[in-house]
Amino acid sequence: MKHLKVGDTVPKFRVKDQNGNLFSPTQLKTGKWALYFYPKDLTPGCINQACNLKDNFNTLLQKGIRVAGVSMDTEKLHQRFIDKYELPFPLLADTDRKVIDAFGVWGEKKFMGRVYDGIHRTTFLIQKGIIIGIIERPKTKYHAEEILEVFNRHKDLKTQGVAIKKHNVNSLRTSANNFVTSNSSKIT
């Protein structure tokens, strides 16, 4: 299975949200999106991640960033998750794994000595239908900050005329430090 990369166009798909409304890549062609893939509704890490995004939702919206989550859970379970934690964004029910496979986030995982296949927690940052950043293994309690950091870095690089090859949080921090270091000598 091929994992999408920065610069790729969002693949074609159709999936329903928690209300049974169809969601497609056409929506991702408008503005900025954080499309986050997570393992399972109502589990500790997924609750932390969703609540962090909820708590920072207005800040994300002020920056023009919309959010949608994707897991293999049903529409009904997604609605329970949204109701229980008052989530202000849609959750997409990819019960047949077509979107998960199209983005390449399904694979072998290890937990407590057990090896199994599942969704790799990954967020794709999308602008006008193009992937401009990927956050692999996001920090669930600080995920909104990671999203803002990548979008801000993308804006800074675009302003400087630098082509973006790949984003992950570790290389992003290194390149951000190099950017600040290389430009601090220019400040008078």
Provide keyphrases for this structure.
7 helices; disordered C terminus; alpha+beta; Glutaredoxin
Quick overview of this protein structure:
This protein is α+β, with helices and mostly antiparallel strands and 188 residues long. The protein has helices spanning 25-28, 44-55, 57-62, 75-85, 98-103, 143-160, 169-184; strands spanning 15-17, 22-23, 32-37, 65-71, 91-93, 106-111, 114-119, 122-127, 130-136. Residues 159-188 have low confidence and may be disordered.
Description:
- By secondary structure, the chain is of the alpha+beta class.
- It has a single domain, classed as Glutaredoxin.
- 39% of the residues lie in helices and 24% in strands.
- It has seven helices and nine strands; from the N terminus they run ββαβααβαβαββββαα.
- It has helices spanning 25-28, 44-55, 57-62, 75-85, 98-103, 143-160, 169-184, and strands spanning 15-17, 22-23, 32-37, 65-71, 91-93, 106-111, 114-119, 122-127, 130-136.
- The strands form two sheets. The protein has a seven-stranded mixed sheet. A two-stranded antiparallel sheet has the order 6-7.
- The protein is globular and about 40 Å long.
- The protein starts with 14 loop residues before the first strand and ends with a helix.
- Residues 159-188 have low confidence and may be disordered.
